[in-house]
Amino acid sequence: MRWIVFVAMLALIGCSDRTAAPIVPEALDYGLNKPLFIGTTRAVNDAGEYGIGRSNELSLMRAVVSIPPQRTLGSVSDGFDSPKPERDFAFAQLSRFPTKTGFADRLRADMDKTRDVTVFVHGFNNSFSDSAFRMVQLAHDLELPGAHVSYSWPSRGNPLGYEYDQDSALFARDGLAELLTTIRSAGQPNIIVVAHSMGSALVMETFRQLEIAEPGWVGRNVEGVVLMSPDVNIEVFRSQFERLQTVPDPFVVIVSRKDAVLRLSSRLRGEKSQLGNIQNADDVADLPITILDVSAFSDRRSGNHFVAGSSPALIQLLRNTPELDRKFLRGRSGATVVLPGQRRVSANTAGRLPPISGSVR
Question: pTM, whole model, 2 decimals?
Answer without folding.
Answer: 0.88
